[in-house]
Amino acid sequence: MRTKLDLADVVSMYGKQLTEKVILSPLQVKTFESIAQCRTSALGGHEEACDSCGAVRYSYNSCGNRHCPKCQAVKQALWIDDLQHKTLDIKHFHVVFTAPHVLNAVCLHNQKLFYELLFAAVWHTLRLFGYTHYGVETGAIAVLHTWGQNLSLHPHIHCIVPAAGVTLDRKWKHIGQQGNYLYPVHQMSVAFKGKFLDSLKRALRKQNELSLFYNPLQDAYKTKWVVHCEPSMAAADHVIKYLGQYTHRVAITNQRIISLADDKVTFWAKDYRDNARQKPVTLQAVEFLRRFSAHILPRRFVKIRYYGIYNHTLKRNLQLQFVADDKTIDSHIKRQQPPETNLKRFERITGINPCLCPVCKTGRMVVINQLPRIRSPGTNFSFYTSFCTLAAI
What we know:
By secondary structure, this protein is of the alpha+beta class.
C-alpha cells in the first residue's frame, strides 16, 4: 500500500484505464496531462546553486492549470492580498446559493450554460432584494464551486455581500440587521428558484432541448431550494481571508488523499450530517478520476465574479474608492504605492524567501543552468497518447 500520494500519482497510474471506460473531452485530457506533469522534468526547470556554500537544487516548472492542486496556493495568497485594497472595511454576509441534484443531468449536458445562468440568477436575486428591502445597489463577490466532499456533482455559489450599498442619489447606506439577518432566506430561495428555472427553460427551448429534460425540470419545481446565510462578519481582513478559502480550491487537495491500495483511493471528507467530522471515503481509482473530471470547468470560464459596487466598471463610473484602513464608508483617493515585485510580495505574504539557501540559511540560490522541457510524453502519460490515437481514428 502506498501512502502520501497526490492527485498526479493517481492520474499517472489510472489515467489510461479512465480513457478506456469514459469518453473525455480534449480539455479534460489536457487537464489530466498537465496535473500529471506538474513540477516534473517533463515541463523543464532550472538548476540552482548557493553563492555561499555551493549547495545545488533542482526546481521544476509548474503546469499553471487552475485545476491542479499544486498550483493554487500562491495564486490564492496573491489574490487575497489584491482584494484587501478592493473591499469595503465593513461587515459582510456569507450567502450560499445551491442548485438541487435533480438538475445534475442538465448541468453535465451543458456546463457553461448551466453555470452562466446560475451566476445570473444569484446576482439577480441579491440585486432585487437590495433594492426592494433597502433601496440600494449593493454588491457581491461570487465564487463557483461544483463539488461535494465526496467529489459528487454539487453546483453552488459562495457570495460575500457587504452590509452597505449606494442609493439612487449616490449616497452610501448601511444595510442588514444585527445577527444573521440580511434578507429573508425563504423569500430569497423562492426568488432564486423561479429566476433560475425560468432562464434555464428559455435557454433549453431556444436550443430545442427542453423536451430532453422535462422530468428533471418538473422535479426541480417540486424540490425545496436552499439558500444559506451566515452571520455577519466583523473585520474586512477576516472577510477576505474567509473568502480566500473558497476562491482557488480544486475538487480535492493532495492533503486529503490518504492512500492507494487495491486500485482504490481513500481520502478524507467532511460528513456534514455528523457535525462536519472528517471521515475516510474509499472509491475505485477510475471512479475517483471520473468524478474529478466532472469538475473541470469549460475553457476560459470565469469562476470568480464581482457584482454591483464591487464590479470594476460600476466602481469606475460612480467613482467609488475603497480604502482598507478607513473604518467608514466614504469616497477617498488611494495613495499610490511603489511597485512591488511578485517575489517581494510572496515573501511579505508568506514570510518565506524562496531564494534563501535551504542548507546554509545565509546564501542566495542563483540559477546556473536551464533544464529544457521534454517535448514527447513520457511512459507515465501513455493514456494521453492513447486518447490522441483514438481521436485521430
